[in-house]
Each structure stands twice: as C-alpha cells, then as structure tokens.
From TrEMBL:
Belongs to the desulfoferrodoxin family. It comes from Anaerosphaera multitolerans. SUPFAM superfamilies: Superoxide reductase-like (SSF49367). Residues 2-105 form the Desulfoferrodoxin ferrous iron-binding domain. This is Superoxide reductase. It comes from the Bacteria. The keyword Electron transport applies. The keyword RNA-binding does not apply. Keywords: Electron transport, Iron, Metal-binding, Transport.
C-alpha cells in the first residue's frame, strides 16, 4: 500500500464489501490536504478492479474535478464507486496532479 498518510498525492483506498457489492472510496489528501487552486490541483482519479485470476485490471470509472475556486467553489478530490461483484481481487486507484503528475495505490479486497 502506498504511503497515503505521509504523501498528500497518494490515493487513500477504503473498501467495504456488502451484499455482493464493493463500495470503493478513494480520497486524495486524507491526512495531508492537497492544494486546490487553478494553478495546482488534482485533475482526476481513475479506479480499477482486477478480479483474482483475471489478467488485467478492469476500469471501474474516471472522475474529473473541475471546480478550483471559481466563486469560492472547490471540488474535493474524493469519490465513491460501487462495483457489483462477489469476487476477490485488487483495487487500484490512480490520481493526477496537474503539477506533480501521476500517483497510484492498490488494496487487496
Ligand atoms: Fe500536487
């Protein structure tokens, strides 16, 4: 698991399994807040799930964050994605900072 508690860019992944679903919450800057300004912000998060024994990660979703202070409105770089599956596997999350580039994390579920 990436060091999301000490590095503000690493996606924190929190997964809850209930009634045949995986509820995947991905948060950037959970412990150390990442700036959100027009000049410096998290632009997107992508979430993938790779079922155990399957060759490739499957893209669950892409999430864009587009409010960076217009009229004091800011999107928080966090998302919840729900997947219907009973399978075990690995959740991957990637985040993109417009200044510091691509970051990733994964979690066995
Ligand atoms: Fe950054």
């Amino acid at each position: 698991m990436g060091d999301w508690k000490n590095e503000k860019h690493v996606p924190g992944i929190h997964v809850e399994r209930k009634d045949g679903e995986l509820v995947i919450k991905t948060i950037i800057g959970e412990e150390i807040e990442h700036p959100n300004t027009l000049e410096h912000h998290i632009a997107w998060i992508k979430v993938f799930f790779q079922p155990e024994g399957f060759k490739f990660p499957i893209e669950v979703g892409s999430f864009e964050f587009n409010a960076h202070g217009e009229e004091e409105v800011f999107t928080k770089p966090e998302v919840v994605a729900t997947v219907k599956t009973d399978k075990k596997g690995t959740v991957y999350a990637m985040s993109y900072c417009n200044i510091h580039g691509l970051w990733e994390n994964s979690e066995e579920v």
